[in-house]
From TrEMBL:
<keyword id="KW-0139">CF(1)</keyword>
<keyword id="KW-0406">Ion transport</keyword>
<protein>
    <recommendedName>
        <fullName>ATP synthase gamma chain</fullName>
    </recommendedName>
</protein>
<comment type="function">
    <text>Produces ATP from ADP in the presence of a proton gradient across the membrane. The gamma chain is believed to be important in regulating ATPase activity and the flow of protons through the CF(0) complex.</text>
</comment>
<dbReference type="GO" id="GO:0046933">
    <property type="term" value="F:proton-transporting ATP synthase activity, rotational mechanism"/>
</dbReference>
<keyword id="KW-0472">Membrane</keyword>
<dbReference type="GO" id="GO:0042777">
    <property type="term" value="P:proton motive force-driven plasma membrane ATP synthesis"/>
</dbReference>
<dbReference type="GO" id="GO:0005886">
    <property type="term" value="C:plasma membrane"/>
</dbReference>
<dbReference type="InterPro" id="IPR000131">
    <property type="entry name" value="ATP_synth_F1_gsu"/>
</dbReference>
<comment type="similarity">
    <text>Belongs to the ATPase gamma chain family.</text>
</comment>
<keyword id="KW-1003">Cell membrane</keyword>
<comment type="subunit">
    <text>F-type ATPases have 2 components, CF(1) - the catalytic core - and CF(0) - the membrane proton channel. CF(1) has five subunits: alpha(3), beta(3), gamma(1), delta(1), epsilon(1). CF(0) has three main subunits: a, b and c.</text>
</comment>
<keyword id="KW-0813">Transport</keyword>
<dbReference type="GO" id="GO:0005524">
    <property type="term" value="F:ATP binding"/>
</dbReference>
<dbReference type="Pfam" id="PF00231">
    <property type="entry name" value="ATP-synt"/>
</dbReference>
<dbReference type="InterPro" id="IPR035968">
    <property type="entry name" value="ATP_synth_F1_ATPase_gsu"/>
</dbReference>
<dbReference type="GO" id="GO:0045259">
    <property type="term" value="C:proton-transporting ATP synthase complex"/>
</dbReference>
Length: 319
């Protein structure tokens, strides 16, 4: 059995750890509030942007000169993985790694490309499908390297994407790689913020522009999604000066908007997951400290009882 001195030392250590986890919980809560505020602030714009995006895709579905609207057999896929920079956030990164491994093991979704109602299934074998990565966050880079996959670009810190302009380098790589037909499909793995206790890992098709994925993302975004839902019919557009110039200007911005929104959702989810993890750690430390305090008091009481018994025995022997 541990001595009372050892137990007392453990109690001090656990209480010190509890103070740290409590402080980290409060910091994460403050960061989560700011991140959620950013997400909620961009959602109305994202709804409107995606509404325009999906209707443009449907209106110009037969217009094949824009690479963003071209659906082709999937042989090479570019995957953007949005993760955290640091640990201590529960199962946040573990869930991303789990979904990623599942999709790589059974790549049926990765091999399917959509545009509006059109769908093309790749005829290549699973082992012939080429999947390359762009990582956002150190943890995502580490998990992809463990899978021995090619990383064409890495952004070690996702916190640098705080305003829309910061997403430009990532969006530029994605758009350029797809435009030159180096990849036939671009998807993003990220964590969708539902509430402080619920976050869901998602895989979304970014390119080619997919009405199916956009509508699904809008439907899952919040309870007000119905007012932003895209109608079943394609809207008629009068385009000036011409469809090519319009698409060349607006589509890259709307694609960047999708990436930016995915990063913001992941940031809010990360801080929420870390807050919950630190709260659980604080509660566990408090429970452990209470158990050790009880054990310490029992040992101390036993020693006092033993000393009283020895004194009583000595007094009886003298008399």
């Amino acid at each position: 059995m541990a001595s009372s001195l050892d137990i007392k030392r453990r109690i001090r250590s656990i209480n010190s750890t509890k103070k740290i986890t409590r402080a980290m919980e409060m910091v994460s809560a403050a960061k989560m509030r700011r991140a959620v505020s950013s997400v909620l602030g961009v959602r109305s714009y994202a709804h409107s942007a995606w509404h325009i995006l999906t209707n443009l895709a449907r209106a110009f579905e037969s217009y094949q000169e824009s690479p963003f609207l071209e659906v082709r057999p999937v042989r090479r896929v570019l995957v953007v993985v949005v993760s955290s920079d640091r640990g201590l956030c529960g199962s946040f990164n573990t869930q991303i790694a789990k979904i990623l491994r599942e999709e790589l093991t059974h790549p049926e979704k990765l091999k399917t490309s959509r545009l509006g109602r059109r769908r093309i299934d790749s005829q290549v074998e699973d082992d012939q499908l080429v999947v390359d990565f762009i990582t956002v966050g150190k943890k995502g880079e580490a998990m992809v390297r463990k899978l021995s996959r090619e990383i064409i670009a890495a952004f070690p810190s996702g916190t640098h994407f705080s305003v829309f302009g910061d997403i430009a380098p990532l969006a530029r790589i994605v758009i350029e790689e797809y435009s030159v037909k180096r990849y036939d499909k671009v998807v993003v793995f990220y964590t969708d913020y539902v509430s402080a206790v619920t976050q869901q890992t998602k895989m979304r098709q970014i390119l080619p522009i997919s009405k199916f994925d956009i509508e699904q993302q809008i439907a899952e975004m919040d309870i007000l999604a119905k007012q932003y839902a895209v109608e079943d019919y394609a809207m008629e557009y009068k385009v000036e000066p011409s469809p090519p110039e319009l698409l060349e200007y607006i589509l890259p911005k709307l694609i960047a908007m999708q990436l930016f929104h995915a990063v913001l959702e992941s940031q809010a989810s990360e801080h929420a997951a870390r807050m919950i993890a630190m709260r659980n750690a604080t509660d566990a430390a408090a429970e452990m400290s209470g158990d050790l305090t009880l054990m310490y008091n029992q040992i101390r009481q036993g020693k006092i009882t033993q000393e009283i018994a020895e004194i009583s025995a000595g007094s009886a022997a003298l008399s």
